[in-house]
Amino acid sequence: MLKEIAKGLEMSGVRFLWVVRSPPSDRDEDRFLPLPEPDLDLLLPEGFLERTKDRGLVVKKWAPQVAILNHKSVGGFVTHCGWNSILEAVCAGVPMVAWPLYAEQRFNRVVLRDEMKLALPMDESEGGLVTAMEVEKRVRELMEGEEGIVVREVAKVRKEEAAMAVSDGGSSRVALSKLVASW
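and the corresponding structure tokens:
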């Protein structure tokens, strides 16, 4: 799957920052151990890093997501649809490509796409796999296409609404105050 993502990013021609982690271990005894640093030469297509070095950055293991999403150069976010990541992207005003992995994330994708109009869906095959062509298509659409323009405009509005909600007197602040008072 990592190789398909890499091929799709490369074919899209867009600038990117991609955090790559090591695949989880199949061994039960390793389940709770920290993952080793990923071997990018093994995980990614041969020559990928060299071919994309002028427009892409691959980071191993972890990156400061909130800081990155709030950087002015970020134009989109491919997300697994975890609620924290969604909130971080909304607060930063970043449009998304929704690619859920499990649990409630599939429901979150529906809300993001159909209700909130904040994301384009990543279409998966039967087994949940995504092709390089689909990655390319969705990334390009978000960054350059008509649907991407609409999603970007909605993201700007939602960013303003989120800022109002957490400001003094905003709905989130009021709700939190009521909760604390009830305790």
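(Above: one complete record from the training split.) The beta strands are 16-20, 56-60, 77-79, 96-98, 119-121.
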